[in-house]
Please model this.
Amino acid sequence: MTTRTIKVGALARVEGEGALKVTIRDGKVKHAELNIFEPPRFFEGFLQGRAFTEAPDITARICGICPVAYQMSAVHAMEAAIGATITPEIRALRRLLYCGEWIESHGLHVYMLHAPDFLGYPGAIELANDEPEIVKRGLAMKKAGNAIVAMVGGREIHPVNIKVGGFYKAPSKKALNGLVEKLKQGRDIALDTVRWVAGFDFPDVERDYEFVSLSHPDEYPFNEGRIISNRGLDIDATAYPDHFEEFHMPQSTALHSRIKERGFYFCGPMARYSLNFSKLPDIAKDVAKEVGLGTVCKNPYQSIIVRSIELVFAFDEALRIIDGYQPPDPPSVPIAARAGVGHAATEAPRGMLYHRYQLAEDGAIEHATIIPPTSQNQATIEEDLTTFIPQWLNMNDDDLRWRCEQTVRNYDPCISCATHFLKLDIDRD
Amino acid sequence: MADAPKKPKLAVWKFASCDGCQLSLLDCEDEILAVAGAVEIAMFLEATRTELDGPYDVSLVEGSITTAHDAERIQEIRRQSRTLITIGACATSGGIQALRNFRNVTDFVNIVYARPDYIDTLATSTPISDHVPVDFELRGCPIDKGQLLELLAAFLAGRKPAIANHSVCVECKQRGNVCVMVAKGTPCLGPVTHAGCGAICPSVDRGCYGCFGPMESPNVDSLRPWLKDLGMDQQALNRVYGTFNVNAEPFREESQRS
Model:
């Protein structure tokens, strides 16, 4: 038996630090392992004993790419623990904030982290040397998303205007109206982006995933809804611990997740899209149809098309919310500390983010559980590698390494969240 | 034909952190391509697969030192870097993960991980300057992207960066904010906190929570009775100082005061 070994010192264009090890023996993938070695930071540990009001600011620091997602899951879980109900105006403003984060994060991933794989560039900076106008389109969208987060949240990274119960201060209608032109341009760019990425060469692969995402009766999901799957899961977030479990693998400082009854699953844009296509606005459905993407997508390399369609949705939804915007007055509902347990799941750009808090009588956090999307997807990423790599064994080492990296980047993994990065190590005949 | 003048080599490095400070560079949507034109990006894993060998003219370092491996890695990066700049609260003070410094880290490992024996970590989270000489420290959790651009521009021009070290109070005055402590009775760390954010919290009717860390000469003794008069008890004071810059004096001392 011969062994061939390929090593990548560091996987680029992901958020955080990790490694990938693929062992190939006699033409078969024996083992694929995503090794997350991001140093652990112990957020759930030092949340213990903090006031419930601190969770949005502290958990934001888990991830600089998707702080809003952490803040949203935290405030909803705290409000559930305390039994508080927010107003429709606060709810709409939170949705608008989430639109901003999706646009910023998806714009970054589509143009700067993922597209270079399809075009054969090491990164967007190098792509910009040849195709500056393309990269500028992505930057323009990203900037529009950041403008929403800065306007509603007070700054782009680790927003300061979010609290349990609502906001510290509501932006004025006039201020939000000032974003409209940029958002309309952004929506047009997003439509062009869908058409652009749909023309990429995609490996012809599919897998029959169990997709998991939130689902809401009337809306494409952000902040609320039931947790559903294409294999019959349909639960409230309070039942999350009954159906999902986490386990710890030696190669990782992130915990893996699985559905207790069945095994690994897939969360993120492709799951949301495939489970909620009917909730998308017509403009997003129409462009999906135009580029020939069905209502369900099972090819993870095409996640870049799905992300681009979600960009169309997020711009359109932001414009809809601003059009009907009434500043919440007061900007937050009163919250009184009390003992309780609260669960919440919201849709981070890269997938479902679950928080659970147990509070003492005085509102101190007694126990915190946080399950980020990347640790939920980690085992599925490894299965993708095991399943797909055998057909590419004739590639040279450099090309195969790049293809493996691309396979991981399909998931827009945020290893800062899952604890954090990526180094690739292919061991083969 | 003469060679074009060589562009300075820029490297971006990550240690224990959330990635937010290096994302600030990519968040400079209007300037990033100009920056990329002015320097050679030799290492920036969040953005590109390109990895060029050192030495580097300038290294931006994000994150704190929390593992034995990282304590060695920063030594090599220092050796390879003409100028080394730390970006953000983790790199300049140890970050929120420095809360471990005040407890037995094993307690935290046991809370979070089912198999603590799989986890390799140091008992402390420490700033880069505890390990190697640092040429400039940019504050903030996260850093302000305008300040990052100023820092890079100053580096390229060979001049001193125009980055003020006064308190957030001065930024409130510059913005024309009404003082939230005086007018609304909202506790605020602005008087002792390093400027740079643009007083964003008071601008949304919220007290500053100190995410840029201590200013150059903070008078926490004077602020303490004011904060207590506004309703903060000692535990609340311990917590507000004990967050994103808990390892930076005098926030450290205030976070442990009984």
Summary: The first strand of chain B starts at residue 9 and ends at 14. Chain B touches chain A through 63 residues (CB under 8 Å).
